[in-house]
Amino acid sequence: MLRLLAKYLRPYWLQILLVCAFQVVAAYASLSLPSLNAKIIDEGVATGDTDAIWANGGVMLAMSVLQGVSQILAVLFASRTAMGFGRDVRAALFDRVLSFSTKEVNQFGAPSLITRNTNDVQQVLMLVFMTGAMVLSAPIMMVGGIFSAIREDVGLSWLIVASVALLAIVIAILIVQMTPLFGVQQTRIDTINRVLREQLTGIRVIRAFVREDHERKRFAVANEDLTATATHLGRRMMTLFPAVMFIMNMSSVAVMWFGGIRVDEGHMQIGQLTAFLNYLMQILMSVMMATFMFMIAPRAAVCAARIQEVLQTEPSVVPPEHGVTEVGLHGEVELDHVDFAYPGAAEAVLHDISFTVEPGRTTAIIGSTGSGKTTLVNLIVRLFDATGGHVLVDRVDVRELDPDVLWSKVGLVPQRPYLFGGTVATNLRYGNPDATDEDLWHALEVAQAADFVRDLPAGLDSPIAQGGTNVSGGQRQRLSIARALVKKADVYVFDDSFSALDVATDARLRSALVPETRNAAVVVVAQRVSSIRHADQIVVLEGGRIVGLGTHDELVASCPTYAEIVESQFQNTEVAA
C-alpha cells in the first residue's frame, strides 16, 4: 500500500504540505485553549480581574477562529488531494486493463476488475482523505496534549498512561479481529458482482429455461454471504465506539475524583484541573480519531494489494519497443507454421498452421466445433500471441508491428457482435470517427442493414442499448459488419459473422461485399458450406490441424473431412426442405 500511495501522491506534494501546515496550526490553536481557559478561571474569575478575563477571552476567540479556518482549509486540500489520487489510480488501472490480452482479462475476471477500479479505489481514496482531514492531527494533538497535561499537574499523569494504554489494547484487539474480514468482504463483493453481471447478461437464457427461481436462490446465497461478512464486521465496529466512549467517560470521572482530592489538598488549582481534563479529552479524542485510521487502514491495505496486483501484472501481448510503422504491402496475411497453446493447457490448440491470404482474395475457415477456428483468427488481430511460428500481416510479424498500425489495418467482426450504448451512428463511427453520413449509409447498404435502420424512429440517430440488446441478433451482426466496412481496412476478419442471417440475406450480403473488399484480404470463419463454397481457398481444420486446403471442388474430391461436412449439410437441407 505504501508503494501505491508514494507513487500516486507524488504529484500532490505541495497540497500535502499545505494540509500538514494547516493541521499543525489547528492543533496548536486547539492545545492553547485549555491553558487560556485555566487562566481565565484562576487569574480572572478567582481574583475578579475583568481585564484578565477579556484579554484571555479575546485570545481564546482568536485561537478558536484560527483553529476553525485552519481545519476547513486542511479538509479542503485533503479532499482535493484524495480526489486527484483516486482519479489517477482509476486512470492507471483502466490503461493497464486496456493493455491486457484476453489471457489477463480471463485471469482476473471482468467483475473483479470492475470492483478493483471502483470499490477498491474508493476505499484507498477514503484512507487518503481521512488521513489528511482528521488523522494527521491526531499524533500532534496526542503528543502536545500529553506534555501540556503534565505541565499542568504531574501527579495525575498516571491517569493518562492508564487511559491511553487501556484504549490502545481494546482497539488493537478489535482491529486484529477485523483485518481478515476485510479481505473476505472484497472477495464477496467480487462474487455478487459476478453473479449479478451473469444474470443481467443471460436474462434471456434464464427466462427461456425458466430458471428464475434457481438464479434468485444463487443471488440470495451470494447476497447472504456478503451480508454475513458485513454484519460480522459491523458487530466489531459497533463494539469499538462504545468501548472508546466508556473509557473516555471513566477517565473523566477518574480525573475529577483524583483531581478534586488534589485541589482539596491545595496541590493544584481549579483552573489547572479544568485544563488537565480538557487535555485528557484531547488526548483520548486523538486516539479516537486514530481509530478511524485503524478501521479504514486494514480494508484499504487489502484493496491496495488488489489494485497493485492488477498494476503489476504484465500483459502477455507486449507492444514492440520500436514497432514497425510503415509497410510496403496492403492486405496480405500469412501464417507460417503457427502453433498455439492456452496458458496451463495440457496440449496445443493449433498445430503447424500455414497458409497465405492475398489481397483481393477470400480465405474461408471451416471445421467442427472446437477445432480452433476462432483461436486462429484471434492470432491475426493479436488478441493472443502464437506460441510457435509466425503470424505476418503485410509480410511483417504482428509482434513487430506497432499495435496501432496493426489494428488500423484489420477490420474485425467477432463471433459475438457487441454494440456500445449510444446511437447507430456512434457505433458505426467507432472505427472511423471522420466517416460522413453518406459513408455510414453506404456501409449499411452493403451489410443489408439500411432498410431496418431507415425504419427506426430516428434513423442513424436511433438509440442502441448497451450490448445491442434492443436489436435482434441478425441486426446486431449486420451493424457489426457495417462498422467494420466503415473502417475501410486492408484485412477483414469475419468470425462466424453471418450465422444469424437467413440464406437469402447471407447471399445478398456476400455479393455486395465483393466490390467493397476487392483490394483487401478477407478471412471468413463459417459453419455453412453454402456461405463459403465460392471462396478462393478454404482451410479445413480438425483437431487444430489443417486437413484440407483448396477450393470447394478440390476439397470435395480430396478431403474426407470437408466432404463429410458437405454431405451432412446437404442432407440436413434436404430434410429441412
Strand content: 5-15%
For the record, the count of structural domains works out to 2
Give the uncertain stretches in residue-range form.
Answer: 572-577
CATH topology of the largest domain: ABC transporter transmembrane region fold
Question: How many angstroms does the end-to-end distance come to?
Answer: 66 Å
The helix content is 55-70%
Largest beta-sheet details: 6 strands, mixed
CATH H level, superfamily name of the largest domain = ABC transporter type 1, transmembrane domain
Under the CATH scheme, which architecture of the largest domain would be assigned? Up-down Bundle
Overall geometry = elongated
Helix vs. strand class: alpha/beta
Gyration radius, in Å: 35 Å
CATH class of the largest domain: Mainly Alpha
Overall strand count: 12
- The largest beta-sheet arranges its strands as 6-9-10-3-11-12
Mean pLDDT rating = 84
What key attributes describe this structure?
alpha/beta; 577 residues; 4-stranded antiparallel sheet; 2 domains
What would you say this structure looks like, in words?
This protein is an alpha/beta fold. The chain has two domains: 2-311, ABC transporter transmembrane region fold; 333-416 and 490-576, 3-Layer(aba) Sandwich (Rossmann fold). It has 20 helices and twelve strands. It has helices spanning 2-9, 13-45, 50-99, 102-108, 110-135, 137-152, 157-201, 203-208, 212-264, 270-311, 373-380, 403-409, 424-428, 437-446, 450-455, 473-487, 503-516, 529-532, 552-558, 560-576; strands at residues 333-340, 350-357, 362-367, 388-393, 396-397, 410-413, 422-423, 463-464, 491-495, 521-525, 537-542, 545-550. A six-stranded mixed beta sheet has the order 6-9-10-3-11-12, with helices on both faces. A hairpin with a 2-residue loop joins β4 and β5 (396-397). α2 (13-45) packs parallel to α6, α5 (110-135) runs antiparallel to α7 (157-201) and α6 (137-152) runs antiparallel to α10. The longest helix is centred in the middle third of the chain and has 53 residues, at 212-264. The chain is elongated and about 115 Å long. Residues 572-577 have low confidence and may be disordered.
